Batch of 3 targets.
Target 1
Amino acid sequence: MADECNVSFIIPCCDDFSFLRKCLSTLMALEPVPQIVVSDASKDRVSVRSLCDEFGVDLVELHKPSRGKQLDAGSEIAKGEILVFHHADTEFSQEHYHSLNTLFQNDSSALGGAFVKDIVGLYPHMKYFVWAHKLFTMHIGTMYGDQSIFVLRSVFQNLGGFRGMPLMEDVSFSSRLREYGTVHLIGPPIRSSYRKFIKEGRIKRKMKNVWLVFLYRIGLNPDRLAKMYYFDD
């Protein structure tokens, strides 16, 4: 199935221009070349538009940043049977791509999942607990956006997508995907930029993220959470 180049990458962008060029260059080098959709809500629309034209990728533009709305809008023009929701500052290699293709080629029951998160690069002392982290995420834990969540288009549509949520769209979708069926956590580990963790401090940033997820779990409106998150940034 994946040999027929039926994978679409959807990239939400909001002032991520410094990462976008490298991201597009990396994804365009994959074989077979996937469809790439950039869903942009940046202040500098012209630069993003020019970059997308340069690489020949599809572009959707939104007036206001909202991760969920951007991902949903990108999925509407995606043509692939497999949708990959990928952050501009997250690495992706041919090895990751091969792992994704192999999963859907060899397992007819596969419906979606995410990549194992590289936690050792950010927290070196966690190298002894990688297996536990993987096991937890595979069976219980949330699959976050920076793990390049992937899903069959049909399943994504049945679940109602990301429902336009401005924040916690990945937490919500991860829960609904688990309820829908068995998810797969695949390697190799995937890594995103550590810039926010380095800027704010690893522990402080982690605690902030945990706190926001907790507030969402107890019912705080995602719109309020988005204001808290982006105001601090």
Note: Residues 194-233 form one domain.
Target 2
Amino acid sequence: MIGEGLVGRTALVTGTAHGIGAAIAEVLTEEGATVHGVDRAELDVSDSAAVTAYIKELGRVDVLVNCAGGVVGQTHNPIEEVSDEAWSAVVDANLTSTFVMTRAVAGGMKAAGWGRIINISSGAGRSVSLTGIQAYTSAKAGQIGFTRQLAHELGPYGITVNCIAPGFVLSNPSTRKQWEGYGPDGQAELVAGIALRRTGEAADIANGVRYLASEWAAWVSGQVLSIDGGSSMF
């Protein structure tokens, strides 16, 4: 075990079917937390009633990691061709889910006087979506704004709220399909734009969560940590 900083704490991670979410659940377990992971097949994290019932049954949550999201199988379409349904599906998966889950656990964290909320946004939320999906970059930017607002609101109760903005991480079927779609030239161009000259791994993001959930980050809140190999220099 790498550490025991979260012994006695309960963590809830969304989007744990594979990739980044699964890696986050693993590192929080290594830190001694009791970890509960959920994915779309188990819980619709944008459904208020379902989430409320789930949290009521689960009980206290000390660490919440909102990792669920993604592009919901969508590809780029010109803005004039984007339907209401397509927009809502992506916003619900990424931003509404973050709101619903945070609302469900905030009261318990307040009562305990301690909590860690970590939102997994994207480099797209700080720049543009490489896939060109308008709703995705908007929802991920929304997560960043939500993080700052909730850090301000919940800080007096001993709760930190932070955000990680990953760069290009080959961690699930969608990102692998995207990578393959670039072809050799596009792949080389993407890697050339990363200072460390490699794409990310799920563990790179999970270790950022490890830090933000720990006592080492007890005075860190409202921050957006870009973990992207140096592809964004701001």
Note: The mean pLDDT is 93.
Target 3
Amino acid sequence: MNNSPIGIFDSGVGGLTVAREIMRQLPDESIVYFGDTARVPYGSKSRDTIISFSRQIMKFLMTKQVKAIVVACNTASAFALETIAGETDIPVIGVIEPGAKAANEATENGRIGVIATEGTIKSNTYSKVLKEINPKLQVFSKACPLFVPLVEEGWQYDSVTYEIADRYLCDIMSYGIDTLVLGCTHYPLIRRTIQKVVGENVTLVSPAYETAKELESILCDKDIFADGRKVVHDFYVSDSVEKFRNFAGTILPCEVGSVECVNMEQYN
């Protein structure tokens, strides 16, 4: 089991930011990544739909004999993590709790902003977790639904992305936050634009780094580290193979070889 891969899934390409951190921090570990590119974005979909999608993906990943699963999607972490974690005996972790812990450590004035998809914001999960960590925190949330399609379209550096970011973030900045959680794994891909809008005095928190650290801790506790003899990274999507391969090649610190398309209906 030690040399079994880590399963990672996201609604599309955003989870590659988490995969990148895992590759950097755990270079001996193999990865199986699934991007649900046929059904992105998740943020506007219902809880039941997200749970159904996440169950399908978990079943698929289990066919790859993964030893742990990382839900590299904030919306799926908010809506489906508890459900799917209870349906398997391997570790399943999300990105919200690691991100909340990092934000609490980063803030100096106790005023934290959270930007995410509509689903994640409506779930109020970040606010709940942050308040559990530190009841004195003040949390201000803002849904930024257009960020995901802009990233998926490859418009990270387009002027329209800056204009939309400026419009989204002006309200949340009025609360005097000193820390901003990028509560969607797509958002670090436009980190430079977001930082330009909010200014250098606001610390941006990406859950990807902390999620990789939590995964490392779990592998250590269970003594299931890989020995690094053969590291293989496999990539799967539900649509748009070439588009995903080209995008992943600009994000990951490794060569992206074959990308296979999977029909998720067979995992109902």
Note: Residues 96-206 form a domain with the Rossmann fold fold (CATH 3.40.50.1860).
